[in-house]
Amino acid sequence: MTNSIHASVLDIRNLSVEFATNRGRLKALRDVTLTVPNEKIVGLVGESGCGKSTVIFSILNLMAENAVITGGEINFEGRDILKLSSSQLRDLRGDRISMVFQDPMTSLNPVLSIDTQMIDIQFRSSISKAEKRQRAVDMLTHVGIPDAAHRLKSYPHHFSGGMRQRISIAMALLAKPALLLADEPTTALDATLEAQIVHRLRQLQKDLSCSILFVSHHLGLIAEFCDQVVVMYAGEVVEAGDVRDIFHRAGHPYTQALLECDPARIEEKTRNLPTIPGDIPDLVDFPSGCIFENRCSKRFEKCRISPPLRYRISPTHTASCFLLAEGGAI
Amino acid sequence: MDMTNNFTARVKRSKFLSLLSRFARDPLGLFGLILVVLMVSSAVLANWIIPYDPIALDILHRLEPPSMAHIMGTDQLGRDVFSRVIMGGRIALKVALVSISLALSCGLVLGLIAGYGPPWVDRLMIILFDTIRSFPTIIFALAIVTLVGPSMNTVILVVIITTIPVYGRIVRAQTQSMKNNEFILAERAMGAGMPRILFVHLLPNIIGPLLIIASMDIPAVVTIEAGLSFLGVGIRPPTPSWGSILNDGYSFIRNTPWLIISGGIPLILTTLGFTFLGESLRDIFDPKLRKDI
Predict the structure, then answer these.
(1) SS3 at position A11
(2) B232-265 burial string, b = 16+ CB within 10 Å, else e?
(3) Rounded to the nearest 10 degrees, how much is the dihedral formed by the CA atoms of A286, A290, A294, A299?
(4) Which 3 state secondary structure label does DSSP give B109?
């Protein structure tokens, strides 16, 4: 099956993940549903610890040993990843799905030259070593490494953080994957580099016509870079929609609060940056009602009794809040 | 004089030369290198160096002091001590190289399996390693000798069995601390299988420090061999060994001290040489300390 048959390269349905802890089962993801359409960039936002990285790692099935997927399906190009054998899954990784990690200082092997690593990563293709090297040079040039042919012999510690992240991106894209998972790829970089890297990613995404699932907690970046946005809170998807829906017509109180906290959007002078009061509920023993109820400024009686369903606001926009229930549940 | 010329020259200089220049900046390392080169070349060229057959008896010239004919004198059976010392060095080096390379390979494989494999394998390996390590080397050697009799192979066997756990434990600890590194996770995310992760990515991260430790173990093995031979449970008597030369000299220490000196000095120099060289190599192979590209 080719991905042209499917409108979306990645389709996660009701994914639930639990971690075995000393206190009991920690329900890290509950009924997460999200889609990454072909050749689109989808942003995944939320506070630290809301399950963004867990989503990414469950797609590759590279979770910690105490994690269990308790339900749902992850359809990639029409096949449920969770039903694949470990060797089928390995064939997918690095070939159809690639990943860029958060910290470029630790995601490259420190004792091997870039040359060795980039040739080794192409272990699937049967072309000669010289061709592999040429492909590596081409890709490094493509991601913006000047004088790539010369720098190929260097080791990771010869490069700056931004350069290393470009190298990681080049390595991830060598196999021309259909889906690139980017787990906060710019968090460890400074603001000017962030813009450069994101711009470059956007260009590469167009050139290679792949999809990107982009995890970040930087709202400005998401707004500028992504086509669609999925907002997560405490292991649930609370709102999803086109980038305009989320940033101009945010429906869920959590998304609204999150947007209000973005320092870039504050217009009046203030001494204190706004925060969302309260903490994420306990994920081992969590409330029976809406997950955001304890921190929500718009909560009412119903919120404490039962959790909201996903309601459709517009054809491209859904949210899980009783205030938006008139559109009907999905 | 000219900065650019100087720079190009530095870049173009061969790796061998830059290695030499690094040694020149480190006098102890250079000293170690010279001692090791002397030791190794005398061992390799032993057959051409020795003036006499090291096991030929000459009762008429027993316990002679150093002279032009016998530069280190003769022992109680009239054998030429210099020839015995050179041949003894050859045997010591042979024992050290064979046993360390075998122990290193076994320790590497077992350590990688223990460090990367499932937890029950790890636990099994650790029990095995700890059991072996709980015997003192000499007692263990005596037990093995009682079982299979003294010979060079016995010495090698003893060293292999007692050093596998040392390397195994180091490799296991390194593997465990490395396997959760992000670059290993990145490799797995790229679809690399276990052999590729172990041998392409983990091994080069582990092998550097391990080779340094191994090179520093050479003098330890030389000492073990000498010690066992001194006790009479190592190399069998007619074959020369530094330990048996020391043992011979020990009986005649009051009248003929050259025997024990001739056996002892090379032992000391070899130990020093390999240790200095090992420490120097450790600094050189740390990629962060490298100045050239």
Answers:
(1) strand
(2) ebbbeeebbbbbbbbbbbeeeeeebebbbbbbee
(3) -160
(4) helix
Residue predicted with more confidence, A253 or B289? A253
Name the closest residue on chain A to residue B286, using Cα atoms.
A111
The span from the CA of A164 to the CA of A159, in Å, is: 6
| Contact flag B181-A106 (C-beta cutoff 8 Å) | yes
Helix (H, G, I), strand (E, B) or coil at A178: coil
Q: What is the DSSP string of A214-281?
A: EE-S-HHHHHHH-SEEEEEETTEEEEEEEHHHHHHS--SHHHHHHHHH-GGG--S--SS-----S-PP
pLDDT tens-digit readout, A50-102: 888 899 999 988 888 888 899 899 999 888 998 988 888 888 888 899 999 88
Residues A317/A241, Cβ–Cβ less than 8 Å: yes
Q: How far is CA B56 from CA A287, B79, B80, in A?
A: 92, 6, 8
pLDDT in tens, B147-193: 888 888 888 998 899 889 999 999 999 898 888 888 988 888 888 88
ipTM of the complex: 0.82
The radius of gyration of chain B's CA atoms, rounded to the nearest angstrom, is 23
Spell out which residues of chain B touch residue A165, defining contact as CB-CB under 8 Å: none
Q: Please, what is the Cα angle at A147 between A142 and A150, to 5 degrees? A: 120
Give the span between the Cα atoms of B166 and B180, in whole angstroms.
23
Question: What is the radius of gyration, based on Cα positions, of chain A?
Answer: 21
Please give, rounded to a whole number of angstroms, the shortest distance from the CA of B186 to a CA of chain A.
6
Residue A70: helix, strand or coil by DSSP?
strand
Residue of B nearest to A64 (CA): B180
Cβ pair A15, A69 in contact under 8 A: yes
